């Protein structure tokens, strides 16, 4: 043990004598670890957040298509779908996207029916806030982009340009950050007014089917009832998001191959030969009585110190990123 500690101390001192070279090697190794660890961490967090978000989504979403474009649908569709055997609830939804010309951001506007306030909404992953007329609950992204605070005022515009002022009474606290980050929730009557949506129409219908085996059967029955409808099943959403994230991760890894190639070249150069200075150092050590295995052990300790330092620096940097 005493010999090992002496050899370890010698390895550290040898690294410090060539600090510029070794620091450059550590930085190169750390950069490679940083790139690939960042991709892995980011991919994992997005996939986990997406899985959490999709877990709360309805099994079936029914939309109305005409000429390839989504249009509002009659509320009577929800009543007919709710009578299908296997459907626990068919909930018409009032929501849409809103472009904020002041900040260039896109918000998701969701109308909350009075009967759902102060209840747990599976699609939002949180308790639905109680909101009065011209009151909204906003996500963290909206608060940041608009510089809002709780109790502040936010102005949105109807399709004809008429401004409507709302009071941000609270901010969302949800398990599904991906869903609520850019969300603006308001009473459904205000959402209809904002989007100029008639009282007898909704944007889509969320269909909840407790038994997963019945999803395909219910989907087919909905299509038979409304041939122009588009059915979006939760499994399709999961597959689409998985494909999208997988493609982007693969693209980033492909772009990073140049760094990986430089890493392998540097590693090969490190392992293939020794500089003249290190050769002289080894010769002096052997002249002083060091055995070959001792020299090899010192070189291994140097490699371990460099590798671990670079790995930890890269992983910590990727986590911070």
Order of helices and strands: HHEEEHEEEEEHEEHEHEEHEHHHH
Structural class: alpha+beta
Mean pLDDT: 80
Q: Give the number of domains.
A: 2
Total count of helical runs of at least 4 residues:
11
What profile does the largest beta sheet have? Answer: 10 strands, mixed
Q: State the end-to-end CA separation.
A: 40 Å
Q: What percent strand?
A: 15-25%
Low-confidence segments, ≥5 residues, pLDDT <50? Answer: none
Instruction: Give the strand tally.
Output: 14
Structure, described:
This protein has helices spanning 2-17, 19-55, 76-82, 140-146, 177-180, 188-195, 215-225, 234-255, 257-272, 276-287, 292-320; strands spanning 60-66, 69-71, 73-74, 89-100, 105-112, 120-121, 126-127, 135-138, 153-157, 163-171, 183-187, 201-202, 204-208, 229-233. The relative contact order is 0.19. It is 53% helix and 22% strand. It contains 11 helices and 14 strands. The strands form 3 sheets. Strands 1, 2, 4, 5, 8, 9, 10, 11, 13 and 14 form a 10-stranded mixed beta sheet that branches. A two-stranded antiparallel ribbon has the order 3-12. A two-stranded antiparallel sheet has the order 6-7. Strand 9 (153-157) and strand 10 form a beta hairpin. It is α+β, with helices and mostly antiparallel strands. Helix 1 (2-17) packs across helix 11 (292-320), helix 2 (19-55) runs antiparallel to helix 9 and helix 2 crosses helix 11.
């Amino acid at each position: 043990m005493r010999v090992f500690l002496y050899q370890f101390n010698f390895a550290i001192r040898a690294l410090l004598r060539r600090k510029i070279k070794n620091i450059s090697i550590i930085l190169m190794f750390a950069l490679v670890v940083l790139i690939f660890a960042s991709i892995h961490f980011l991919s994992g967090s997005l996939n986990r957040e997406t899985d959490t978000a999709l877990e709360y989504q309805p099994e079936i979403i029914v939309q109305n298509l005409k000429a390839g474009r989504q249009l509002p649908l009659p509320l009577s569709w929800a009543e007919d779908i709710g009578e299908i055997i296997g459907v626990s609830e068919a909930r018409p939804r009032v929501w849409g996207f809103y472009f904020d010309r002041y900040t260039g951001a896109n918000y998701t506007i969701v109308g909350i029916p009075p009967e759902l306030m102060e209840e747990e909404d599976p699609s939002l992953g949180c308790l639905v806030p109680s909101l009065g007329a011209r009151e909204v609950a906003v996500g963290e992204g909206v608060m940041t982009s608009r510089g809002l605070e709780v109790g502040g005022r936010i102005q949105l515009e109807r399709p004809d340009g008429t401004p409507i002022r709302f009071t941000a009474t609270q901010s969302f606290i949800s398990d599904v950050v991906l869903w609520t980050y850019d969300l603006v929730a308001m009473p459904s009557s205000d959402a209809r007014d904002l989007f100029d949506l008639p009282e007898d129409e909704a944007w889509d219908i969320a269909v909840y089917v407790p038994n997963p085996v019945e999803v395909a059967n219910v989907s087919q029955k909905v299509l038979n009832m409304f041939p122009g409808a588009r059915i979006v099943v939760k499994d399709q959403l999961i597959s689409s998001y998985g494909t999208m994230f997988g493609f982007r991760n693969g693209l980033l890894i492909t772009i990073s191959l140049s760094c990986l190639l430089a890493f392998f070249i540097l590693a090969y150069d490190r392992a293939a030969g020794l500089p003249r200075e290190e050769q002289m150092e080894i010769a002096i050590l052997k002249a002083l009585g060091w055995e070959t295995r001792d020299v090899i052990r010192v070189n291994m300790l140097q490699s371990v110190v460099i590798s671990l330092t670079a790995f930890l620096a890269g992983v910590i940097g990727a986590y911070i990123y």
